[in-house]
Amino acid sequence: MLDFKLHTPIGVGDFLPDDMEVKRKIIKSTADVFESYGYREVESPMFEYIEVFSDEKMGSISPKEMFRFFDKDGSTLALRSDMTPPIARMAATAFEGEKMPLRLCYFGSAFRDSKSYQGKKCEFSNAGIELMGHKGTESDAEVIAISIKSILACGIKEFKVHIGEVGFFNAVLNETRLSEKDKNSLKELIANRNYAEAEYFVMSKEMPNNIKRLFIELPRLVGGPEIIEYTKNLVTSLEAQRALNSMEILYNILIMHGVNEYVSFDMGMVNKLNYYTGIIFRGYTYGTGYSIIDGGRYDNLVKQFGKELPAVGFGIKVDEVMNALERSGKEFVSSKAKAMIGYTPYGMASALKIADIYREAGVKIENSMCGSDIDENIEYMVNKGMESLIFFKDAINILYVRNEKNVGIVAADITIDDLVMPKKEGEK
Known about the structure:
alpha+beta
């Protein structure tokens, strides 16, 4: 019988020290980029009333995918399943009189019951931004540029952000003249990248030849600005043409941001969340099966909480970025201590005082718990991969041990006067 005390539930797991170092560096790298653009951090509760997430106008997360429970009054609560709706609620209720646009960023975990999908986690870490109160291509471009610069700051250099447009795809669907049921069926096939079945479906229906051709060519309508120009010849509706013109303007602004080389347009991109209304985008890199960035424009979401506020944002999947960095072989400088300080009972007071001086100067140093046995202290130092040991035999006499790669263990008797005391930053 499984001993539940020794295992984590399906879909969640522990982060050990090496993992946490990488995770924290990713979060710090993204936070530095967010803050450099003027975004300020907010934090929503880990759980909220289920209505924040379950309204069909606000998103497409099914209640079946949420972790739900009841409070003492019988109200249904849910663990945070999406980072954006809580921030939309926050923007509608907590920033009265604030000069727009509003720039917010966040870091935290969301939870979805995805146990039926093999290999998918139920808890996933996110870092992202929301730009609220501005409707236009300029704000779309800023958000996409920040998403790209954030991924670059994390250490991933080979990736692409694929950009689609909800308005364009909906306009094309309307040009098919299909019933709502058939439109939804076709949309689902495209969303699942089932192009062969989509082609068969299109060929079996009555619709304009240019639109049939567009859906058949969708797998190839991915690339640079030339794809936009080519697609213009396949559509006739003003709505679709306006969306394509907007994508061209977006690309020109992304050139000014200096990130256009990381951008690709995907005419067949379908919104995964119901609240997206305009530009949508996803970032992909090698070695991971899922997108590492998801984002888009959602001009009607905040309105569901009582305030008209256009918005655009994105989220970075921190766990997927970690997987991508691991597969790329990127190495991080460890933050663990490179030195330790040991002591006998007679040298303890001096040792602890010296250790604090080092720490105040920014040096990471471990206090030994190996007692007075010098050999045991050296063995611990070597096992932990540390570079040096300062061992206080008493208040004055010290053994300084170095662990050198090509030489091995080198030891010398010194005194406190021989120690080179580190200087704090700014000291001469």
